[in-house]
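Module 6 notes. Inverse folding takes a fixed backbone as the condition and produces residue identities as the prediction. Think of it as a translation problem where the source language is geometry and the target language is the twenty amino acids. Below is one complete input and output pair. Work through it position by position during the lab.
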């Protein structure tokens, strides 16, 4: 890979990916909305462009990039959490802006489009096939991602551009201020507060941001056309096991309140080929969990 475009480059995942690409000697066109963060990426060697979501339909004009090997689409308004999960108007707009970016990429002659999606789209398959499964608000967010993927794949295939999807597990790490569950639990444990949790017997996964960035790089560099790649661990554990280890790292004496909330619907990981990314690219998660949790907790605490 010689040249890449990253949309959403000032977000949590997009920024980490941009820095990873630069470390690998890739020329990066970083697209985002936060001018201060764009300036920081510029100082690291990226070419930066301030573009709104509404500008993705004219992305080629805005950044004037040609001979692009991969366009990574990490931009998704609202992120994962809060009211954005249930904002169907926002998620429909996210899908449209993704399609705009795909068409722009085709017109720019981009070789491969990589969509940063979520493992939560798997829940939608169970929802369709099993009438005993009832949808959570998270499904509105997941449907925005899935709609972006299906329509994007269709446009890319008929426009002669490769398209790959990254199904990202729950990410954590420094630089993410979002009120995600791992962040909340880390903050509470650091303060000696007893976290109130689900029972936690379902399979779950946490993936450090450095591994997310490395996984996305691998998809762009060696991934295959029209394939979904899971970015996470190849061997899964239960939510209870992850939270217990996290507790043992940060505050061994603090009790965990398992069972105070009902379990969320279990993701059927049978729909996912957990080994596809390893087989096609050799990628595996490398982060040391204890070290990465301590670093993240320290960042959340402001130190």
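Target side of the pair, the amino acids:
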């Amino acid at each position: 890979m010689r040249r890449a475009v990253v949309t959403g480059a000032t977000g949590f995942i997009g920024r980490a990916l941009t820095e990873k690409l630069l470390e690998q000697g890739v020329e990066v066109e970083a697209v985002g909305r936060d001018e201060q963060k764009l300036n920081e990426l510029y100082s690291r060697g990226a070419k930066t462009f301030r573009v709104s979501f509404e500008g993705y339909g004219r992305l080629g004009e805005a950044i004037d990039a040609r001979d692009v090997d991969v366009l990574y689409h990490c931009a998704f308004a609202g992120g994962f959490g809060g009211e954005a999960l249930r904002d169907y108007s926002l998620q429909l707009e996210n899908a449209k802006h993704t399609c705009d970016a795909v068409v722009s990429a085709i017109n720019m002659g981009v070789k491969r489009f990589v969509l940063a999606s979520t493992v939560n789209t798997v829940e939608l398959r169970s929802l369709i096939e099993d009438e005993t499964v009832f949808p959570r608000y998270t499904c509105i967010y997941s449907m925005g991602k899935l709609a972006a993927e299906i329509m994007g794949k269709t446009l890319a295939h008929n426009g002669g551009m490769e398209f790959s999807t990254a199904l990202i597990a729950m990410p954590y790490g420094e630089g993410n201020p979002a009120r995600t569950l791992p962040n909340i639990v880390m903050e509470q444990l650091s303060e000696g507060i007893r976290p109130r949790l689900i029972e936690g017997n379902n399979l779950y996964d946490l993936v450090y941001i450095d591994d997310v960035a490395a996984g996305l790089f691998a998809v762009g560099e060696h991934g295959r056309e029209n394939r979904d790649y899971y970015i996470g661990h190849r061997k899964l554990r239960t939510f209870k096991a992850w939270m217990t280890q996290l507790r043992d790292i940060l505050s061994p004496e603090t009790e965990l309140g398992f069972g105070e909330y009902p379990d969320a619907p279990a993701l059927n990981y049978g729909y996912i080929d957990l080994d596809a990314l390893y087989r096609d690219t050799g990628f595996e998660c490398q982060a040391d969990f204890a070290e990465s949790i301590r670093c993240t907790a320290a960042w959340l605490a402001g130190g």
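Reference fact for the lab report: The chain has a mean pLDDT of 94.
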